[in-house]
Amino acid sequence: MELVKGGCCSSFSSHSSSVRPKLIRRSNRCNYKYGYGYKTVKKNRNKENIAHLLNPFPHVHYSHSGNFETPIHQHRIKALNQVEDEKLENSNADSGYENLEWPSPNDEIPFWKREFPLLNIASRASSLVEHDSNLMHIVHVTAEMAPLAKVGGLGDVVTGLARACILRGHDILVMLPFYECIPKHCINNLELINTYNSYHDGNWVPTNAYRGEVSNIPVIFIEPSNHFFKGHSIYGGSYNELEAYLFFSRACLEWMQVTGKQPDIIHVHEWQTSAVPLLYWDMYRYLSIQKPRVVLTIHNMEHYGECNKEQFSKCGLDGSLYGSEEKAVDDRTIGHNPERLSLLKGGIVYSNAVVTVSPTYLKETLCSGWLASTLIRHRDKYSGILNGIDTTMWNPATDIYLPSKFDASNIKGKQTCKFYVQRGLGLTADDMSPRGYSSHRVPLVVCITRLVRQKGLHLIIQAIKHVKELGGQMVVLGKASEGQVEKQFQDLAKSHSLGSSVRILLMYSEELSHMLYAAADMVLVPSIYEPCGLAQMIGMRYGAVPIVRKTGGLADTVFDMDNDSKSDIANGFVFEGIDEASLNWALERAFSHYRERPREWDDTVKKVMQMDNSWNNTAEKYIDIYKSVKG
To answer: Which candidate, 585, 612, 595, 605, places its Cα nearest to that of 545?
Structure first.
């Protein structure tokens, strides 16, 4: 198959295929704004042209050297086209997309790289949220913020929580490294506000502070004059990341000091900014910053911010003073020479409150892992709050990337989205004709994930195999960080050429992810462990029924449809083992429900779309924690 690699939108070429949308405005690579309303050039097409677009195998003349068409094959295509034609015309007549331009896998410009309108999503934020009576000034210190600097869920959480608190009237500020890879044109009202010096390894480094807005969220960008945060990606630069984030942590506090900032709450995230509470309580509290209290959110305990005492000392604190079990020593190195420190452990000890991203993950972290003893000692200040999703950005009723909008009251547009993605990716179903399923009734499973071991790579590979055996379709969208994993999935992708029932796209595209969620019948999240997980929530928002492994936040959000005792909250299919048989059984049950109970399935789709996974409840719980520790 065609291997697709790379990032988001590229510039629109003047040499497009015959399927060209009306140019409105090119979406930025960073996708910092989102708009509503999809426009295309409208042309009168006769039935013959529509039937041609609906040919399930438009690529047979282009993707294969041999001629695979036989009289029987042609007859199958003709029969399927008639069914698809009728279904599509009925769907389009209802949804108003009778003149929708249908994509092809042979288009020079992939359909997810077409032009989309832009509109600030903040303008669509709900005006119904009541302001809190006790308003606070909250500063987030973070390594990621969606969509500017996003690798995983951390960036989504920072943006979603910040926006939810702004809607309640709180004064929110986000502090972020000014990574060289951030496109400046993605930031509104960007300006240099001051230059100051911040300490690192015996030197005072000239540092610029820029102010800008991202989706109406105020952001301070910290830009040191040295080599930190230079490079083409957020992580993996030529500089020492640990030292860079130690510098950033102090630079944020130094900026608050020189500008006279006195926030009520400093909210830090992950190991990258876990040095902030140590620096605050052991240094800056004795200077001019005395009001704030510090909250730490742990999004994933896979990374601990390990360093030696000499490295830690480069931030200006004496690392030897933190080498005790009660402070920041890495318990795994006690008695070793040398012992090491953990920034994450230090952050847990020194923060006023510690939050992780789901109640079940909290229980799991208290029972296993070397940090469990530290968390147990600080259990009184440790909470589990389930993340939310930004329901303004993730909204199938207004999503600019979708060829047809839909909501829980009318899901016909979802069928159009499914057709659209099937056409654009050249998906067919191996059993489509023998079992009598037209492509809209072939289950489409989508897996959008980072291709790392935590996400259950062996289960994803098994799902590809078993979905094919069950006569379904599957799309995997994700990037691998390890060369060996990338090679494994490259080989797997090559074995599924255009016209098969599987597509593996080794990339990430914000635009395509929206389309895939809208097209999917099921979203697969087979993680070995998952602190929270957003894919299952986004999938449900778009009417994709989740198939998940019971762990972390997945266990808090998805409840099995075959569990009669929880029928009122049942919304997906759950398996517990990490073996292939457990996954297979979940897939088989999902496919059985989909094919044998179509009306019940549609009811489930509508049900999951109405589940409230927004930031509203999550923000309220965070605000309660802020108030409980506020000085």
So the answer is: 605
Beta partners for residue 445, in sequence order? 474, 522
The Cβ-side half-sphere exposure at 563, using a 13 Å CA radius, reads 14
In a 3-state reduction of DSSP, which class is residue 463?
A: helix
Q: Is the peptide bond before 263 cis (omega within 30 degrees of 0)?
A: no
What pLDDT, on a 0 to 100 scale, did the predictor assign at position 567? 83
d(C-alpha 170, C-alpha 294), whole Å = 17
Measure CA of the first residue to CA of the last residue in the chain; give whole Å.
Answer: 59
* Rounded distance between C-alpha atoms, residue 586 and residue 529, angstroms: 17
Torsion sign across C-alpha atoms 468, 470, 473, 478: negative
> Measured between alpha carbons, how far is 260 from 239 in angstroms, rounded to an integer?
31
Task: Tell me the C-alpha distance between 240 and 254, whole Å.
Answer: 21
Phi, psi of 203 (to 5 degrees): -125, 150
The beta strand positions in 370-464, using DSSP E, are: 382-384, 444-448
User: Are the C-beta atoms of residues 449 and 526 closer than 8 Å to each other?
Assistant: no
Q: Which domains does the chain have, with CATH numbers?
A: 5-119+391-615 (3.40.50.2000), 137-389 (3.40.50.2000)
* Prior bond of 147 cis (ω within 30°): yes
CA distance 250 to 268: 12
DSSP strands (E only) in 362-430? 382-384
Q: Following DSSP, what letter does each residue of 337-365 receive, concatenated?
A: SS--EEHHHHHHHH-SEEEES-HHHHHHH
pLDDT of residue 580: 98
- The Cα–Cα gap between 84 and 53 comes to 10
Looking at residue 524, its amino acid is: L
The residues that bridge with 432 in the sheet, in sequence order, are none
Element (H, E) at 275: helix 275-282
Residue 502: strand pairing partners: 474
Query: Do residues 229 and 237 make contact, with C-beta atoms less than 8 angstroms apart?
Result: yes
Averaged pLDDT, groups of 10, the chain, 631 residues long: 42 37 38 35 39 35 33 40 46 54 89 76 56 93 93 90 96 98 91 98 98 95 97 90 98 98 98 99 96 98 95 97 95 87 98 98 96 97 96 93 96 95 84 45 95 97 97 96 94 87 93 97 98 97 99 98 88 98 98 96 97 95 97 68
**CA distance readout (Å), 48 to 82, 101, 438:** 11, 15, 19
User: What's the CA gap between 271 and 582, in Å, rounded?
Assistant: 34
Question: Following DSSP, what letter does each residue of 199-266 receive, concatenated?
Answer: EETTEEEEEEEEEEEETTEEEEEEEESSSTT-SSSSS--SS-HHHHHHHHHHHHHHHHHHHT---SEE
Cα 168 from Cα 162, distance rounded (Å): 10
C-alpha torsion 128→133→136→140, nearest 10: -30
Cα gap 170→576, rounded to integer Å: 41
User: Between the CA atoms of 417, 420, 426 and 428, what dihedral angle is there, to the nearest 10 degrees?
Assistant: 60
Question: In the predicted model, what is the mean pLDDT of the chain?
Answer: 85
